[in-house]
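Box 3.1 A note on notation
Throughout this textbook, protein chains are presented in two layers. The first layer is the amino acid sequence; the second is a token string describing backbone geometry. Keep the layers aligned when reading.
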Amino acid sequence: MQLSIAHLGPSGTYAEAAATAYVRHLVETKGLQSSLYPYPSIAQTLWAVAKGEVDLGVVPVENSIEGSVSMTLDTLWQIDSLRIQQALVLPISHALISLAENQQNIEVVYSHPQALAQCQEWLNQNLPQVRQIATNSTTEALQHLDRERSAGAIASERAASLYKLPIMAHPINDYPDNCTRFWAVSLQPSPGGSHTSLAFSVPENKPGVLVQPLQVFAKRGINMSRIESRPTKRLLGDYLFFIDLEANTSDQSVQSALAELATYTKTLKIFGSYSIVDR
């Protein structure tokens, strides 16, 4: 069986590296072969899975420096039908890539917003005057270098090698232990595992609105490893809440907690239970 897996492209992105790691995981654990398909954005990657264009998608969800990837969370909530199959954690090491004669000649730096943010301190210290321009992916940033000899791009060492471009500095991320968690998602039911991700909205925004939903887990001894709010995009001050649990939905205590949680929420979405693989 040959699976098709979507990821943020073009070739050389960290999402492609995560998708490649997931391909290896599928071979090692299930003997399954896969082909990779790049898409121009995270949202398009997820919609490709939802529409059945591909079997799976691998998308970034959280970085150790910059936190959650809002595009992934917002699109998952919007689509509603995708389920997490696996989480993968990859180390992320950024490089400054440029065709400029030297670092002092760089006037603008291109990269994905997450990469720019993860290298902000380095940029402030070494290239304080340069303009920073966001691109859809780190690899897309490299496309500017041939046209602009005073430009730099932040991407991976692998991307520089793939496109035969010189590395001017590496590593430039502000923290050495930089890593990103990715989710592999599909339309299939989640397999179960050590973690569960969900999201919910509340009937109205008022003081203490989160107390009862959070107590649902606390009184059962279920640990929450992450909680985050995202705007609903309908009204100012109206939020969705995303939560990661260190538990499996097959556990009786989790089933009981989710049943009670549903009574306190307006909309409750369970994205599935899954295991986490470090690569």
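The mean pLDDT is 94. The first helix runs from residue 14 to 30.
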